[in-house]
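Subject: Sanity check before I submit

Could someone independently write out the structure tokens for this chain? I want to compare against mine line by line before I put it in a report. The sequence has 153 residues.
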Amino acid sequence: MFSAPQQIRRFRCLTIVRYVLLLAVLAGCGQKPTQLDKLRRFGVRLAFDDFGTGFASLNLLRTFPVTHIKIDKSFTQLMNISDKDRVIVTSLIQMAKELGLEVVAEGVENEAAAEFLRSQNCETGQGFFYGKPVPPAVFAEAFLLEGAERKLA
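---
Independent answer below. Compare away.
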């Protein structure tokens, strides 16, 4: 039986899951969580999910050792029709860059949104534009199994 640090070293925590999403429970913590610092030392990258909504506040960017923010889809889905949402998305991307963080934009559903995000130097998008949700077996066959070809469109 491996302890958690041994398991992280042995499997590098990267086989399937590369990112750890910080849950809203962390918002109540007033101190920097040393367990997350330990995970970072093992190379685990941490992200605030649904950033801009809920408990992932700007204040927590000072405290938690995150490597990414995931901009909530409620902003990205409206950024092409709402000036306010476009300013929020642009500002979040710029702020993240200034803090040395990577950005994932959730809810990217069309080419216009993807192109706008690329123009703002957003590294990663997530949403129906890139692919529909699939059952685990289909995902494994398309992306994880040796010799599998990319079958998802």
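---
OP: Matches mine. For the report I'm noting this point. Helices lie at 4-11, 34-41, 58-63, 73-76, 83-98, 111-119, 136-144.
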